[in-house]
Amino acid sequence: MSISLEDVSMLLKIPVTGKVVAVENFARYTDESRSDAIKLVSKLLGVSIEDAEDEVNISKGLTVQKCWLKSRWCLKAGSRNTTYPPVECTARAYLLYLLSCTLFADKSGSRVSIALLKLLEDLADVGNYAGGAAALAYLYRHLGSATRVQVSQIAGYLTLLEGWVYEHFKLGLATPNAKYMDYVHPRVCRWVQKHETVMNIDKVGSIRRTLDGLRPSEVTWDPYVNHRENGVVHAMAFYSGTLKYMDVVEPYHPERITSAFGHVQSISDPPSRPLEAHRGPSALKYSVKYGFQADNCERWRNHLLAPEVRGEKAEFEFLATPTIYLGSSKSLTH
Prior knowledge:
This protein is mostly helical. It folds into two domains: 213 residues, no CATH class; 105 residues, no CATH class. The protein is built from twelve helices and six strands. The longest helix has 16 residues. Pfam families: PMD. This is Aminotransferase-like plant mobile domain-containing protein.
């Protein structure tokens, strides 16, 4: 099983279709990209070139500090600057902070990529980006990185991961949110998020044993069967190709999780092979590169799984995962 675009759409209620979230000229730190970043911060956040340069120097990269960013909207809230609408600067600072704390959270917990600010230049265009697809690509990459033996932290929107676990696995870990209202709040708000800074090693071991011992009947393969609009799976869920966030490209294979869409799962072809792959023991030595065609993602309707590949609709949920598929899957993952 894996997190799908439908999971993102249902849990977060954010767009999974639209423009690709990428800014190519901020992919690497160079003198030119540093200069462009300083000018961008000055222009879009309404600060002087000097202040922007000082902040970029302190952050030591194409980033700004979250504490500095937060001070921007607090400072600008009462500004009477008429040369640049302060409300736009305030909105950009807030959205940049929000994105860095949620969909695109990194391991630092204190810095924000200036590349994201470029996407906020035209506030009216922000809703046209496929933020959900980008967040999934970013989370996929960091889930891969987290498998390395020397990696002890994970980046990405972990609320999405946590919500996905609660939807699909009956582990008794979720705390229901009494204030949740269906069709008003995103489904991820059904639960109260837990904040455990340190987890007891015995508890981790217990959860792992529970997961390994789950039977097919104890997994909710299709949790949205009664919650889809008009009872139809979001067509984008069947898009087959790659997803992109900035310089991160990850394959998306819905044919490997058709049981999550109420179809009978069959044994699919092997996943896409990367162009380059270096999976060392640490995050710094973990590098995977896949090919990407922007048109494929933005014209996703031309790249959907054929009906015969999706498989037949399962009459009952437990029939969506035949024993032969489960055996094949276990041989690859254990």
